[in-house]
Amino acid sequence: MNHVARAALSSAAALCALAWSGAAAAQAALPTRTECLEGHRNAQELKQSGKFLEAQEHLQVCSAGSCPGAIITDCGNWITELEQTTPSLVFQVRLDGKEALDANVMVDGKPVTDRAHAFKVNPGRHTVRVELASFEPREEDVVLPEGQRMRMIEVDFSAKPATPAASAAPAAPPPKELVRPTPVIVYPLLGLGVAGLAGFGTFSLLGNSERSKLEDRCEPRCTDDDLTKMKRWYTIGDVSAGVGAAALLGAAIVYLARPSKEVDSTEAKLSFELGPVRGATASSIGLGASSTW
Question: How far apart are CA 155 and CA 171, in angstroms?
């Protein structure tokens, strides 16, 4: 009996010692008042400077149960606030349309070990680097403001060789067309011919007018001096008719004897043609223009 009692007392003493040592260790792990105040101050400064992740580490200290009540309240409120305003990234890396699980993702040189959850970062610019065996690394700079959470970063790799663009078949040369362009000299000759015929008509009318005046004034006793003006109008008219006829004849000869040459069918062409006027009551020659594009 005494032996059993002594064993029970020894066990109880051991349990008490173990419980006391655990309580002492837990008490030692709790931050002191000074550490709480220091954590509160550091968290506030880091939060104001945009270093949200570093601030959260200090907030874990100043929100412990051993800290003063006011400190715990402030730190608890800041923890809730930073949970809502701390930016984060999520990643989707694909190889030929399928998720590439063996890809390595780093943000500002720090590896992302858990891609199943959002990766928190401080507000500001960050460099995302994605590495996949047998491929050139991909890098992307992103800027995240406060409160932008779950920003998606998508990176696609392709193992399939890019389909080369089909080489365009050499364009066939444009077909040649045989044409007989009108020589440039034809146009001034035509103009001169028309002007000559117009002059013939004008001076003939002037001569006829002068003839009518002479018939009323002096016929049949008109002198050579009286006839001089009439003869001059008729002479000028005859010369104009001769020049106009010669010019038109020359234009026709040059036009009919013009040479042929080959041109591209796509080349714009402007040509003039001489031919009979359609719809006229009498035979006549006309000048027509046509263009081809």
Answer: 40
